[in-house]
Design goal:
mainly beta, six-stranded mixed sheet, 39 strands, 1% helix
């Protein structure tokens, strides 16, 4: 997927190379530049990298190396910047919002809670300018377009703060310089009644601007005052503090205020959001599913009434009314939550506690619900065994037909295959709706045979050892849950591609275990 490149003095390397990322070309099917492939993985796997460095000491150069394993997860991604998808023009000192698809990268197993935002002024050749750091990985961030960068080829990169993945917006944008920039690191602030709030920013000037600016705050809520550490400023890169007082006079809520710099010829303003909270929490009222509900899907979404002064909620789910046997305990930012570890035919109790930056409330009155019965059927293919010819590079297929129009809650694949050099094989399953999931692809080298059940919930991915090389209950390369939400009605096609001649084999058995919530009457 990635080949070694000639040595470079640069202390970093992008995978794939940055020029291809900027052009939106993350995969390729043909070798380029002397046979070097550069393609990201579309399936879960471990990628093992080694870095070698060498110094330049005359007559005594030494080398050292280090290794790292990068795990491609099927449970998250793709992480993509969605804003700035077409050409745009910005002025330094204005605010702009960058958006991205979080794609589950903020939860386990990735758990990238924060991102950093970088600016390129050369069309994405380099990204040396860090313009926002440790931003919450929630898919959106409003920032001040920085001063000092006049460009017609701007690009933004959003990168995980504690990880290696990143994304670049799709189109170049223009930044025009401005005489004055009020450079705030943040545009949203929280304050707990009756505390004061201190907000800091840098006053910056460009284009040779030296006039004196007078600072003020407009649109202040009644009863609130704002005091600057200095009211006038003329020197660039001067740090300024604003102290907001009188929050005890405000109702809980969000307030917009305008910070203004006025000189003889220039007026610049920037809008801040002041979010006022206290700890007078109300009890959270649960709404769905209704208390005591029966036959609830294990994929249920728990919902409750939003609380005005809460910025997050703690959700607890247990199998007992005393909450001593916790199943899940999660902190969420919205008034709903979808559990990921519920079982069918089980009674659950759940409750919610409100929180904000000032403190936390108490858990409200719990609800209970019972999940629906889980029914499964195993159906085998009627057109097996099928020989895999040793001549050429054959492709064989086997079909299982379902007549029920039902949505699967779980699908497992049982395979018995005889074949030497399993690395020759690509094995996939295609649903009646046309969705294809790869089970095995060019794996296990010269090891032979498969007799295994492929199950998303298996404890381990398949390993290549013994005879058969793949055995037991194992996770496939792709994700069988991709079929969830589709109907099982129609033909399910197993396809085996043999990409090398001279060593044929046989598909001995192929069956599907399909589980649904509720009644399943096989025909």
């Amino acid at each position: 997927m990635f080949r070694s490149l000639p040595p470079s003095v640069l202390p970093e390397r992008y995978f794939p190379r940055l020029s291809r990322v900027v052009s939106g070309n993350l995969t390729q099917s043909n070798p380029v530049e002397g046979g070097a492939w550069e393609t990201v993985s579309n399936v879960q796997r471990d990628l093992n990298f080694s870095l070698t460095v060498r110094d330049n000491v005359l007559n005594g150069g030494q080398s050292a190396s280090d290794e790292v394993t990068v795990t491609v997860s099927r449970q998250a991604g793709p992480f993509v910047v969605t804003s700035q998808a077409s050409a745009a023009s910005y002025v330094a000192g204005e605010t702009e919002t960058i958006t991205w698809d979080v794609a589950n990268t903020n939860i386990l197993p990735i758990a990238a809670q924060n991102v950093d935002i970088f600016l390129s002024t050369d069309g994405g050749i380099t990204f040396p300018n860090l313009i926002a750091q440790n931003v919450t990985n929630d898919g959106s961030h409003a920032l001040v377009i920085p001063g000092g960068f006049s460009t017609t080829s701007g690009r933004f990169m959003v990168k995980a703060s504690n990880n290696i993945f990143f994304s670049v917006n799709q189109a170049d944008f223009t930044i025009a310089e401005s005489e004055v920039v009020l450079n705030f690191d943040n545009l949203n602030y929280e304050v707990c009644k009756p505390d004061d709030l201190v907000v800091s920013f840098n006053y910056e000037s460009y284009l040779g601007f030296t006039e004196e600016s007078t600072l003020s705050v407009e649109s202040l809520p009644i009863g609130v005052s704002a005091v600057f550490s200095q009211d006038t400023v003329s020197v660039s890169n001067t740090p300024i503090d604003i102290t907001f007082s009188g929050t005890n006079n405000l109702a809980i809520g969000s307030y917009s205020v305008d910070v203004v710099a006025t000189s003889a010829t220039i007026t610049k303003s920037l809008t801040l959001q002041l979010n006022v909270y206290d700890t007078n929490f109300s009890e959270i009222v649960l709404t769905a599913p209704a208390d005591g509900s029966l036959d609830v899907s294990k994929d249920v979404v728990l919902e409750w009434e939003p609380d005005l002064i809460s910025t997050s909620y703690e959700v607890e789910i247990a199998t007992d009314a005393g909450f001593s046997n916790l199943v899940e305990s999660k902190l969420v930012n919205t008034n709903s939550y979808q559990p990921d570890s519920l079982l069918n035919e089980t009674q659950y109790f759940w409750r919610v506690k409100p929180l904000n930056s000032c403190g936390e409330g108490t858990f409200g009155t719990p609800f209970s619900f019972t999940t629906i019965q889980f029914n499964c059927i195993t159906k085998a293919s009627n057109n097996v065994p099928i020989n895999i010819s040793p001549i050429g590079t054959p492709t064989i297929s086997s079909v299982i037909l379902f007549y029920q129009d039902l949505n699967p809650a779980d699908i497992n694949v049982n395979l018995d295959i005889e074949h030497t050099y399993l690395s020759d094989l690509v094995i996939s399953l295609t649903s009646p709706a046309g969705t294809t999931v790869v089970l095995v692809s060019s794996a296990c080298g010269n090891n032979s045979d498969i007799n295994a059940i492929f199950d998303d919930e298996a404890a381990n991915a398949f390993t290549c050892s013994g005879s058969p090389a793949i055995s037991g209950t194992v996770r496939p390369i792709g994700t069988l849950s991709s079929f969830y939400g589709e109907s099982i009605l129609g033909e399910w096609v197993l396809e085996i591609q043999d990409n090398a001649a001279s060593d044929g084999g046989r598909l001995n058995n192929f069956s599907l275990e399909v589980c649904v919530e509720g009644d399943f009457r096989p025909r």
